[in-house]
Amino acid sequence: MKESEERQDLLPGWSALVVMLTIFAALSVITLMTLLHGGDDHIDPEAHGRVAYGPADFPEIDFEMQLQPHVEEAAGEREAGTFTVPPPPFSDDFIFPCSECHADLETDTERRELEAFHEDIVLNHGPEERWCLDCHNTDDRDNLRLVSGELVGFDESYKLCGQCHGTIFRDWRAGIHGRRRGYWDGAKEYLLCAHCHDPHAPKYKPIAPLPPPVRPQFLAQAADPESEHAEAEEGHEP
To answer: How far is the C-alpha of 15 from the C-alpha of 23, rounded, in Å?
Structure first.
C-alpha cells in the first residue's frame, strides 16, 4: 500500500515534465521554421527597397582591375606570402622619374609656399613644420628617405607611411585597411597608401552615406508582381 502511494505521488511530477518537454519541442520547431523562412512574415512589406546597389553605382572604383601577370603566375603556384604592389599612381603622368627635372636643379631647403613648380601641392599633413624634404631625398629624387636615412622606392612608400602610422600600417598589411587583390592563402597584391590617400593632404573629404543593402528576398519580391508583398504594397497605394 505504501509503495502504491509513493508511485501516485511521482505521477504529477512526471506529467509536468512531459508537458514542459512538449512545449519546448513546439517552440523549437516554430523558431526553426521562422529562421528558415527569414522572418518574412514579421516584416512590414513597405520596409524593403526596390533596387540593390551594384558596381554601376560606384563609377570611381575599378571593379574589373586585374592582377598583374607576375602576381597571377605566382598565385597559380599558390606561393603563400607573395606580396607585390602596383606602380605608384603618378607613374603614367610623365612626372617620373623625378630626376629628369631635379637632376639639374639646385635644392632649395627653405620651407615655403611652392610657386614655380608643383604649385598645386598644398601640405596639410601633420604639423606645420612638415616639409617636402622630410620624405623626399635631397640627393636622389627618385627615392624616398626614411627617418633612419635608408632610401626606399616609391613602390615601397608604405614603409615611409608606416613610420608614423604604425597601427594603420599593421592593419593594411593584415588586409583589413585599404584594398588588396589576389588570394587569401596565396599570392596577393596590395594597393599603396597613395592609391587612396593624397600623401600631401591624406584626410578624406566627407562622403555621403548610402542606404544599407537590400535583402535578397526583397529583391525577388520586387521583381515578382504576383508576390504577396507586392500585392500588399498595391493595397497601400493611395
So the answer is: 13
